[in-house]
Amino acid sequence: MSTHKKAKNTGETIKGKAKEATGKATGNEGMEMEGRADQAKGDAKQAIQKIKDATKH
């Protein structure tokens, strides 16, 4: 996996965790759900990239 893509996907996951925590702290369920969605999207992108890398080798 390229370092740039890995960092971008990890960043998206971290952003999602922060958004979820902020949503919980403020009682904003919408933000909390957005945070979970961002985490899932980042995790999914990482998984796809790992599969691509595994098939290359």
Which strand-content bin applies to the residues? Answer: under 5%
Roughly how many Å is the radius of gyration?
A: 13 Å
- SSE string, helices as H and strands as E: HH
Distance between the termini: 11 Å
Give me the secondary-structure category.
mainly alpha
Using DSSP, what is the number of strands? 0
Largest sheet: none
Estimate the helix proportion, in percent.
Answer: over 70%
Low-confidence stretches: none
What form results from the Cα inertia axes? elongated
Counting H and I runs of at least 4 residues, what is the number of helices? 2
Mean pLDDT across all amino acids = 90
Describe this structure in words.
- This protein is 91% helix and 0% strand.
- The chain is mainly α.
- The longest helix has 28 residues, at 29-56.
- It is elongated and about 45 Å long.
- The protein starts with a helix and ends with a helix.
Secondary structure elements and pairings:
Blueprint: H1 3-26, H2 29-56
Record keyword descriptors for this entry.
57 residues, single chain, mainly alpha, 91% helix
